[in-house]
Design brief:
By secondary structure, the chain is an all-alpha fold. The protein has 2 domains: 231 residues, Citrate Synthase, domain 1 (Orthogonal Bundle); 97 residues, Cytochrome P450-Terp, domain 2 (Cytochrome p450-Terp, domain 2, Orthogonal Bundle), CATH 1.10.230.10. The protein is built from 16 helices and 3 strands. A 3-stranded antiparallel beta sheet has the order 1-2-3. A hairpin with a 2-residue loop joins strand 2 and strand 3. It starts with 15 loop residues before the first strand and ends in a 26-residue tail after the last helix. The mean pLDDT is 97. It binds coenzyme A.
């Protein structure tokens, strides 16, 4: 038995390749270092779903379908208005995504065509849910999506009400590409386990969102920014990190179950953080991050993961901290749905065994009066 199923091969997949020793990540055979500078989130989503890069017509078709699916059912907007304004955005996303199923006439249609259409809708609507709830909790009306913007640009627009600059669109788009898939990570595995019961795609992605929320998974990016704010100044970094070491506490944004070397996503996000922090005139967050990384790497030999430099990148772009993990979900929805479609296409119930560690199975029931 391997605690946490470490290194256990739990299924076959043609979607995502990871070499944890060499630090290689590829979607459908395309190295992340090829995709990050060249692709878009729409193109990467197509690649994940269909297994190959689209031609121009196919890309336009999938992009049009995504932009046409952005609006939420009015009942889901009403739900977003009904939940407490201080609700945790990941909890709201989980509930609202689940609620979308009840207003989708195809929700229970398990044909591959309907499931693909739902995957596209979910990919589009996830961004709208996150942005709509953010405006509602601020006491504003949700901002209607715009069909003329890319997924990244429209998310920025729905969140802020401002026209995105090409720089901010590109930064968000690259972040979306980098987070889109990651093999059998905890949330994708949760989604596949649910899909493998032949439950519907909404149930499967709802499971996945619940798993992503945890601080050992997607929630780490928020924890990183809270740590940076708590430290506050580069002069305090060393003492803070050494204090965490002394208390045997984990440093958010470091370590990985699979990578034994640099997480290739962190390579891009480090550069993006530096550029974004400099552009915003807030280099201190990058400089503090770099110092933390230097200490953790030198003294503990542990590398930064995807969540470490994404935190400062998002923060200086003006994204509220509690939307960092929902934004991760906006991206990972593409990978989750690709994995769920793959699971449906060649399904067998996922039902492992446990190594039993309880009492011998021969206890006699004792009447309540004698206990
Ligand atoms: N800070 C300090 N030490 C860390 C660490 C971190 N972030 N991550 C791992 N370690 C240490 C552990 O303390 C442990 O040391 P030990 O063997 O002396 O006890 C060793 O490295 C292995 O860690 P473990 O927690 O068993 O690894 P895992 O594979 O079960 O967990 C993570 C992987 C990602 C959950 C873990 O690294 C972690 O909790 N990181 C912080 C949260 C985070 O950033 N999550 C996002 C992942 S993308």
């Amino acid at each position: 038995m391997k605690a946490g199923l470490e290194d256990v091969i739990a299924g076959e997949s043609g979607i995502c390749y990871i070499d944890g020793e060499k630090g290689i990540l590829a979607y459908r055979g395309y190295n992340i270092h090829e995709l990050a500078p060249n692709s878009t989130f729409e193109e990467t989503s197509y690649l994940l779903w269909f297994g190959r890069l689209p031609n121009a017509n196919e890309l336009k078709d999938v992009s049009d379908k995504m932009s046409a699916s952005r609006a939420l059912p009015p009942q889901v907007i009403a739900l977003l208005k009904a939940v407490p304004r201080d609700a945790v955005p990941m909890a709201v996303l989980r509930t609202a995504t689940s609620a979308c199923a009840m207003y989708d006439s195809e929700a229970e249609d398990m044909s591959p065509e309907a499931n693909l259409r739902k995957a596209i809708r979910l990919n589009a609507q996830c961004a709208t849910i996150v942005a709509a709830f953010h405006n509602i909790r601020d006491g504003k009306e949700p901002i209607a999506p715009r069909a003329d913007l890319s997924h990244a640009g429209n998310f920025y627009y729905m969140l802020t009400g401002n026209d995105p600059s090409s720089t901010s669109i590109r930064a968000l788009d690259v972040a979306l590409i980098l987070h889109a898939d990651h093999e059998l990570n905890a949330s994708t595995f949760a989604g596949r386990v649910t899909a493998a019961t032949l439950s519907d795609i909404y149930s499967a992605v709802t499971s996945a969102i619940g798993a992503l929320k945890g601080p050992l998974h997607g929630g780490a990016n928020e924890a990183v920014m809270k740590m940076l704010l708590e430290i506050g100044d580069i002069s305090k970094v060393d003492a803070y990190v050494h204090n965490l070491f002394a208390q045997k506490k984990k440093i958010p944004g470091f370590g990985h179950r699979v990578y034994r070397t640099e997480d290739p996503r962190a390579t891009h996000l480090r550069r993006m953080s530096k550029e974004a922090c400099e552009r915003a005139g807030q280099s201190k967050w990058f400089e503090m991050s770099a110092r933390i990384e230097e200490i953790v790497k030198t003294e503990k030999k542990i590398n930064a993961n995807v969540d470490f430099y994404s935190a400062s990148t998002y923060y200086v772009s003006g994204m509220p901290i509690d939307l960092f993990t929902p934004f991760f979900a906006v991206s990972r929805m593409s990978g989750w749905t690709a994995h769920i479609l793959e699971q449906y296409a060649n399904n067998r119930l996922i039902r492992p065994r446990a190594e039993y560690a309880g009492p011998a199975p021969d206890l006699k029931w004792v009447p309540l009066s004698q206990r």
